Amino acid sequence: MTQPSYLAGALRRRHYPLSAWPWRALAYAATTLPVAGVLAVAWSVVAAPLLLVASALRQGRPVDVRVLAVLAVLASVALASAPLTSVPVAAVERWRLGLVDDRPRPGPARRGPAARWSSAAAWREVAYTAWLATVVPLAYGTFGLLVLLDVALVAGPWLAGGGDRIVLVWATVDTPAGAVPYAVAGVLAAPALLYLAGLLVAGQAAVARWLLDGAPDAGALREVTRSRARLVGAYEAERRRIERDVHDGAQPRLTSLTLQLGLARLDVPDDSPAARPLDAAHEQAKELMVTLRGIVQGLRPRQLTELGLAGAVGDLAARSVVPVTVRAELSHPAPELVETTAWYVVSEALGNVARHAGATRAEVRLTRADRRLVVEVEDDGRGGADPDRGTGLTGLADRVAAVDGRLLLSSPPGGPTLVRVELPCRP
Q: Where would you find the membrane-spanning parts of this chain (predicted)?
């Protein structure tokens, strides 16, 4: 079974409490506290005076105009500097995301300093910083109160000793025996708190990935996406036409020509001057048949039609010079164009592993979830893959983008290398 690569996926597994993911979630939460705490203090310094003035105005009390002017200037300065102050926060958060998400992490938007105030990606970083300073402390504080309540319930039999009356939830107990049922409830609630903590951290990580993704603005790419969709549709129609024409037109005629040459060769004596040219023509016609068949099959790989995506990828793995493990979790088939793209992705990625990675093993993971087909190819090679040093990865990214997919690459020096492709599967 494929191991989950991020916390939200691990939470759906039965053995989550016994895995390393709760500890990774704890590490993420522990490192969140100082970051969110500093931001919350900074936010309160700016927001508290504004809230006090707003409260006074709402109650009809007079406020000095000079105070309003100073607060307006401070608020304007804070807002204007927010795109710059959010840069280190975003960098730290992208790094921390690796604690609970092994998938390639979104990179920062590489824009000039002036674009910090005009790009949507910069203001998404500002939004994440504000969210981290306000919502996250409240959520963690609420969860902390639940943990303290559960600890109080478990410790109730000891706290109720000595004749002291204690309040547990909505009841008051004064004896250890009376607190035992609450202690049992507290112990039973501990696993629920473990999962609740995982959900809290997974939600925070999901927001971080969503807001800190350095992808281009959707508005700027809307027309490009529409044009690309039209081109993909036209390409698919043309591919089917060529495949049909070659299969139904040229291939039968070439087959007939090959048979005619074979029959003509049988009628020519071996010592005739025409025998040798006929033999050569017959062999060339047969070779051309094989070549043409390969071209027709290359438009859509034959293995996909006969074996399906999982079987076709298994066939690629079996023919790889590097040992490859295939793990497929495909509940139902994907659209034909998506499967073809996924097959070419695996084929090119395994080719790169064999040619450049120096790896001893590789793994291919296929997952169909949330109307997406996710393809991951990981190897234990030397790493350091760079799209600028060759056309393989660039061509792969172009092929994925043609079906509105996304390619993510993680290849630090020394390895491992992970290529992750997400392909939308529209109904």
A: 25-53, 65-84, 138-160
- The CATH superfamily assigned to 303-424 is Histidine kinase-like ATPase, C-terminal domain (3.30.565.10)
* CA torsion angle 296 297 298 300 (round to 10): 110
The strand ranges marked E within 86-195 are 166-168, 171-173
Longest dimension (CA), the chain: 121
- Beta-carbon count within 10 A of 193 CB: 15
In this structure, the strands spanning 372-379 and 362-369 are antiparallel
What is the rounded CA–CA span in Å between residue 291 and residue 358?
Answer: 32
CB 285 within 8 A of CB 257: yes
Token readout for 314 is: 């298994």
Q: Measure the CA–CA gap between 28 and 204, rounded to whole angstroms.
A: 10
- Flag whether the pTM goes above 0.90: no
Tell me how far apart the alpha carbons of residues 307 and 315 are, in angstroms, rounded to a whole number: 9
CB 174 within 8 A of CB 160: yes
Q: Chunk the chain into consecutive blocks of 10 residues (it has 427) and report each block's average pLDDT, rounded to whole numbers.
A: 71 85 92 91 76 69 68 71 82 89 68 67 86 91 90 80 65 74 85 91 90 57 52 61 64 75 77 78 76 60 78 87 87 81 86 83 86 87 72 73 82 83 80
Q: The tokens of 41 are what?
A: 């203090």
> For 321-341, b where at least 16 C-beta lie within 10 A, e where not — what string?
ebebebebeeeeebeebbbbb
Which residues fall within 8 angstroms of residue 5, CB to CB, at 6 or more apart?
101, 102, 103, 376
Q: What's the CA angle centered on 262, arms 260 and 265, to 5 degrees? A: 110
Domain boundaries, the chain: 7-212, 218-299, 303-424
Q: Let me know: does 322 contact 350? Beta carbons within 8 Å.
A: yes
Residue 394 · residue 344 · CB < 8 Å:
no
Cβ contact 133:42 at 8 Å: yes
Structure tokens given for 393? 């990865």
